[in-house]
Amino acid sequence: MNEILLQGGRILDPAAKRDVRGDLLLKGGKISAGKPSQGALVVKVDGLVVTPGLIDPHVHLREPGQSAKETIATGTAAAVAGGFTSVIAMPNTSPVADGPNTIAWMRQRAKETGVANVFPTGAISLGQKGEALAPIGALRQAGVVAITDDGHCIQSAELMRRALEYARMFDLPVLDHCEDKTLSAGGVMNEGKWSRILGLPGWPGIAEEVIVARNALLAELTGARVICQHLSSAGSVRILKEARSRGVRIDGEASPHHLALTEERVEGYDANFKMNPPLRTEADARAIREAVADGTIRFLATDHAPHCSYEKEVEFDEAPFGVVGLETALGVYLTELVHRQRMSLTDVVAKMTQIPSDYFGLGRGTLQEGAPADVTVIDPERKWTVKKGEFRSRSRNTPFEGRELKGRAVFTIVGGEIRHDLDGRAPKK
Fold first, then answer.
1. Tens of pLDDT, residues 378-395
2. Active-site annotation holds for 180
3. Is pTM, for the whole model, over 0.85?
4. CA distance 96 to 122
5. Which candidate in 149, 176, 284, 303 is catalytic?
6. What residue ranges define each of the domains in the chain, with the CATH number in brackets?
């Protein structure tokens, strides 16, 4: 579609400090300040919020090698259904994305089959084994926007230090799944009252906190940029806040399940409530929400981790960790943060657009003239019930099945092309 006029919406662009009612013109794949031509496609968005396309900094697309769980095609279809126009893809594929060839394949595959922008990350270590560094410079040249061994925390402090030193040379952020394996060993849910009641091995918060503290010290030593992924513990928030107050270049990331759900949901042994790190206490969830609201945690992600149904339909402690989130994250964040009056809509949108775009250098996250025409139209008042049978993702492992949420993406445009139209708003030509 060459020219689209979004008419009558609330245009909310935190990057430009713009919040007005009006029209937005998309022309030639860019945001335009000009006037629409007679042939422009007019889409009425009265009563809706028009924002820059949402950006998810933590997604598992599973391709190459695990296409039974998800593919770039199905994962990006789920993304646009959830309002995301750009996703940052983790490297724990098969083979692991630890070299330029795999990165090149992923980028080409995304061009051929994806309906959202895909920005790959590369592994920190070869094979994500935590033994030897991957070729970080070559990965940078291949186009990665960060390095991470997500799902496989670097256990060696010495190797992590070297990774941060190299990453700083190439101005690459380092994303870390924070888990001391000697402390979490064998754990499948939060260590505490409920693990004792249910007879399941515990994964204590201290296993996360030890690595967050290590990363803060190493970030301070090296000057590198670090994001501690999917934080779950109040102790981690405390460490992060202290380090950031001293100017250390360390950030935190939150995921929907860790701020909206707590450990007692595991009571029925439903493996759709099994994720890593695990759901923790209400005090932990409250600390995560407060850290997002006060800016200690700057990134809102999904940690979209699809698995086949048969993998989750086993004993709880045998099932894989991870839940899907692309199609529910916006609803959860709006419900928990905006509608419960913990944050303004503007601040939530900034965390899902401007902040990740600027941090990772994506050149998006704004509706200013000349920017890529990536746009999300949100109905913040829409109530809807999560039904996993309607997902576009290939997988169904959601912890939010049957939950009523308030707020949903109804229209998603990527590069000036309509990729999601929930209500059929675009007139047919």
1. 999 999 999 999 999 999
2. no
3. yes
4. 8
5. 303
6. 53-363 (3.20.20.140)
